[in-house]
Amino acid sequence: MISVIVCTYNRQEYIGECLKHLAKQSASAEKYEVLIIDNNSRDQTADISKEFVANHPELNVHYHCEMNQGHTFARNRGITEAKGEILSFIDDDAFVDYHFIEAIDNYFKQHAEVSAIGGKILPVYEGKHPKWMSKYLLTLVSALDMGEQVRKFTGAKFPIGANMAFRAKVFEKYGKFNTDLGRRGSELEGGDEKEVFLRLKREKEEIHYVPQVKVDHIIPERRLSMEYIKGLGVGVGTSEKRRVVKSGLAEVIKKFISETIKVGGTLVLFFLYSLQGKFAQAWMLLKFRFWVLKGYFQ
């Protein structure tokens, strides 16, 4: 069975539609369960979720409230409550494809060597497509599109938390999400799923990109404001600092080298985009790298 874990916080405008898509699946209801983990929401998220549970007795769906504030606490609560052999995590503003459950089920059955997968995440902008967006900044809107072919996540590439799935035994073997990382309430720190995937990569576990496992990810206009993007960049830097410091000196040195390379790459892209007249994209690349470094060094 597949356990779909939906961690939610103050998302009354999206959680209902998110759950509707999970209710309309090509796979039979016995194939999966849905776990709604409410991270102490203060809007109507709880009421909408509980109403959905009551109105869908044919589904294996459960509501839980996790009072410890933080995305990682909610994810870990989902792992504790889950009964499936496969654990799928999606965001509360992600709407799954009709064949979502079926695609996850088929892939893990056919690839016994695979420990985790990341699916395709397509951004759906509520407003206009931002002029400053480039393929190098798609992670800012939790988007992931590596094409139509299955491939391994190699190097520094890894799945994005809006659409990822694991064999349950992964968490039994390597532990759950690090509660020192991840978002808390309206804060914009992260790094929790990255840290898990780094653990798996160190142990040579197979992690694949599976484009058939698809979701649409809603991007409201407020997530495209400079204030939000700046907060996100600083949050990324702060989270990375916390992660590497706890990992020891070797990881600190490795991170310093990788950030130096990223700065160099950003400068190259800045000049290339500028030469092409794409000044908005060039400038945003530079600003975001500065904000990440600010979070890392402050």
TrEMBL record:
This is Glycosyltransferase. The lineage of its organism: Bacteria, Pseudomonadati, Bacteroidota, Cytophagia, Cytophagales. One of its GO terms (molecular function) is glycosyltransferase activity. PANTHER family: GLYCOSYLTRANSFERASE, GLYCOSYLTRANSFERASE 2-LIKE DOMAIN-CONTAINING PROTEIN. Residues 3-175 form the Glycosyltransferase 2-like domain. It holds the Pfam family Glycos_transf_2. Keywords: Glycosyltransferase, Transferase. Its EC number is 2.4.-.-. It is an enzyme of class 2 (transferase). It comes from the Bacteria. The keyword Coiled coil does not apply. The keyword Glycosyltransferase applies. SUPFAM superfamilies: Nucleotide-diphospho-sugar transferases. It comes from Marivirga arenosa.
